Amino acid sequence: MIAVACVVEADEPKISIDITTVTLDGDVQKTHVGTVPGEQFEQAVNRVVGTLESRKKRDSQLVEGTPARGPTSLPVTIAVGSLDTWVRIRRILENTPLIKNLQVKKMSRQHVEVNMTIAGSEQTLASALGAQGLNLTQRDGTTWKIKEITQT
Q1: Which residue of 27, 55, 74, 132 could cross-link 23, Cys pair, CB 3.0 to 4.6 Å?
Q2: Residue 88: in which H helix or E strand, if any?
Q3: Are residue 109 and residue 143 in the same domain, yes or no?
Q4: What's the CA gap between 147 and 150, in Å, rounded?
C-alpha cells in the first residue's frame, strides 16, 4: 500500500465511511467500511483502524502464498553518475515501503555503496523498484546493483 484516503461523510444522523488505497503498481481499491449512527463515531473510527490493520497484515504477505519474512540486509551498489541522479534514486528508495533502513557506506562520482534493510524478498523489492524506474539485479551471490531504467 502506498497511499490511503479515508472519507467520512456526516449526513445526520448517520456517518458513512469509505477507504481508498493506491498501491505501488497504481491499483486503486475502494472499500465502503460502513454507515453508523452519529453517536457511534468512536466505533466507526475503530472499524477504519481495524480495516487498515487487516490490509496491512494482508499486504505483508509479500509473495502470494508465502508469509513475509524478517528483515534482510542487502549490500547494494547504486550507479549514479551525478549528484542529481543520486538524489533522485535516494528519494525513491526512502519512499519505498519495503526498504526499512538505508545506510550509505561509501560514495564516489559514479557509485554509491549502501546497506539496505528490507522487509520481504529481493524479488518483491525488484518489482517495486521496477515500477519506479529502477532496476535491481544481483551481481554475485552476495551483492546487488541498482541503476535507473533507461528509456529507449
Answers
A1: 27
A2: helix 83-94
A3: yes
A4: 9
Full residue range of the structural domain in which residue 37 is found:
3-59
The position carrying cell 490490509 is 55
- This prediction's pTM: 0.56
Q: Determine, yes or no, domain membership for 34.
A: yes
Total count of domains within the chain: 2
The three three-digit cell numbers of residue 35, written as one number = 454507515
CATH number for position 122: 3.30.70
Task: Please check whether residue 71 is in contact with residue 116, taking contact to mean a CB–CB distance below 8 angstroms.
Answer: no
Q: Residues 88, 109: one domain?
A: yes
Q: 22-76, pLDDT tens digit by residue?
A: 665 566 777 777 776 766 667 767 776 777 666 666 555 544 444 455 678 999 9
